[in-house]
Amino acid sequence: MENVLGFVALAAGLIIGLGAIGACIGIGIMGSKYLEASARQPELMNALQTKMFLLAGLIGLIDAAFLIGVGIAMMFAFANPFQL
Hints:
Elements: H1 2-40, H2 45-78
Helix pairs in contact: 1-2
């Protein structure tokens, strides 16, 4: 039984960790591409900034998926359905 609880804790950590890594990498890549594009064409900086903020809002939906993963991990950690 202790093995099952250990695997649940490991799975909860993986859900939270991988979700956070994915969301952070996505936002980091988007920010770096914005800086790259605005350095190449400074006259388009305002249009690029508007599009970047629009995409940052849409990436907020990706962060919502990460938070759903956190909720599922917390459910398994505290209200474990595998515990007898």
